[in-house]
Specification:
Distance between the termini: 49 Å
Number of helices: 17
Number of strands: 15
Largest sheet: 9 strands, mixed
Radius of gyration: 26 Å
């Protein structure tokens, strides 16, 4: 196998003698048949940079300026782009392997699995719908230097935070999807304070402190969707008649539940205690509970006819449905109202007029879906950081496009029942609400309420508590699949 030649361009005026030890260590830990290009970066052989703090004073690590600097450093075929501050040691022969795979596959860039200490970290395959700006490539990618330069020559916006995101999407439009190599080819060093503070956070995209960078990311994904012919515009939305049809009540609170004897009574009472000027009911879909939940529900239903309990064990199916399947059962039930409003079985409405505010918003904005805001609390109602989650990043004009970049749209979620029935939820236990929201946003308006209507209680029995890396990967793969489906649906709609 012919090794890809990578030469050192060593600028002694910049590096001076204090960098010689780093370069020596880098060469010792790398495959010695590969010497990485150096000027400002010592590309991720053992250290991701010669001095990352010096670099960060000049550029944000993922800025457009940083991408241009990296591309200018080498005349070679491939360039390594660091994506974090973690030090990286390539395993013997690893750079040759990934460079070879990149060349043979003809893809614009490649990424791989890695080791964090003794633990192998697996990355997931990239799809056309992998539009999250925080997609996990690991700590670096290896890219075609020619294609990187070609893309950068067409980029005329200099982003401070979204440079890599912009470049990555340009690369996929120019040369197709990247190569995911499921081989562990490098190891990362200890996490720095900077990485620990600023890297992945479940709620980073709704943190007001990150608003400027999130606006950059939104600008990038919007331009990408426009280039693909997948943009949703207000002019393309369909009209609605919210008065159409006949329903037994104006609103139904939908609560899928399985084995929540500690919380189900609180959730149901929270719904039944809502104060409205319209009739409503509560439909609980008991998904074959075995812990006493069914008995609690039966007792509550006996004293309040507004509580409708549907037992999925009475439905002919070899397996219990997922959360999405439970929603479909509730929507199809003749007791379901004009508007179907979500409440999880371990959460609570935070105010007695939550239902009224949601229904009023449907009527005022003539929309197919309303999404409120919620407050994070512990089991006992004590507020947890970051507190209010209101998804202020949403805009009526561009929210449906930005929805393909973020991982969720918020809660509580409420649907115009005929539209939700026509679309249907996927029968899964993760991402079913996101799938419905994406499909609705393609064709219909969505409205929001930015004050808290809902308490989202975090405790050890939450379905998303302490997820394993494998489960996180599975969840991310599924949502990327949903985005891929939605992306193609939007392109198809715009082409007709």
């Amino acid at each position: 196998m012919r090794s890809t030649k990578l030469h050192i361009f060593f600028n002694i005026q910049f590096y001076r003698l204090k960098f010689l030890r780093q370069i020596f260590r880098a060469l010792i830990f790398s495959d010695l048949s590969f010497v990485i290009s150096l000027r400002l970066y010592t590309f991720v052989i053992n250290q991701p940079t010669v001095n990352m703090s010096v670099f960060n004073q000049r550029y944000s690590r993922l800025s457009t300026a940083a991408m241009r600097e990296i591309a200018s450093m080498t005349s070679d075929d491939y360039v390594v782009i660091p994506l974090s501050d973690r030090s990286i040691a390539w395993h013997p022969g690893a750079l040759g392997r990934i460079s070879q795979a990149l060349k043979w596959s003809g893809t614009p860039f490649a990424y791989c699995d890695y080791y964090d200490g003794e633990t192998r970290r697996n990355t997931i395959a990239y799809q056309s719908g992998s539009l999250r700006d925080d997609f996990d490539f690991g700590h670096c990618v290896v890219a075609s230097a020619r294609l990187v330069r070609e893309c950068l020559s067409t980029i005329d916006v200099n982003y401070l935070a979204a440079g890599w995101y912009d470049l990555r999407l340009h690369l996929t439009r120019l040369a197709g999807l990247p190569l995911h190599l499921p081989e562990a080819l490098y190891s990362v060093g200890p996490e720095s304070d900077l990485s620990a503070d600023n890297e992945k956070s479940h709620f980073s995209y709704v943190d007001p402190r990150n608003r400027a960078s999130q606006l950059e990311m939104e600008q990038v994904v919007t331009a990408h969707l426009a280039a693909l012919g997948a943009l949703v515009t207000p002019a393309s939305r369909l009209s609605l008649d919210l008065t159409a049809g006949s329903f037994p009540v104006e609103a139904s609170v939908i609560i899928p539940v399985r084995n929540r004897r500690l919380t189900i009574a609180d959730a149901v009472n929270s719904a039944l205690s809502q104060i409205t000027d319209f009739p409503f009911n509560v439909i609980v879909v008991d998904n074959r509970s075995t812990d006493g939940t069914s008995e609690i529900l039966a007792d509550m239903a006996s004293s309040d006819p507004r509580l409708i309990v549907i037992d999925t064990s009475s439905i002919s199916s070899p397996t219990a449905p997922g959360i999405g399947g439970c929603w479909n059962i509730a929507l199809a039930d003749p007791h379901c109202g004009r508007f179907a409003i979500q409440l999880d079985s371990d959460d609570l409405y935070s105010r007695p007029d939550s239902l009224s505010l949601i229904v009023e918003r449907f009527r005022a904005d003539n929309c197919a879906m309303v999404i409120g805001s919620y407050t994070l609390t512990d089991f006992h109602g004590n507020i947890l950081p970051p507190g209010l989650i209101n998804h202020a990043e949403w805009t009526d004009s561009n929210g449906p496009n930005n929805a393909l970049r973020i991982n969720g749209l918020g809660a509580p979620r409420a649907f115009f029942t005929p539209i939700a029935r026509a679309i249907g939820f996927p029968d899964v236990c993760y991402g079913e609400d996101y799938a419905m929201a994406l499909a609705i946003s393609r064709d219909y308006p969505i409205s929001r309420i930015y004050e808290s209507l809902y308490l989202c209680r975090r405790w050890e029995d939450n379905t998303d508590h302490a997820l394993s890396p494998e489960r996180v990967n599975s969840n991310n793969t599924y949502k990327d699949t949903l985005r891929t489906i939605e992306l193609q649906a939007r392109i198809g709609r715009n082409n007709h």
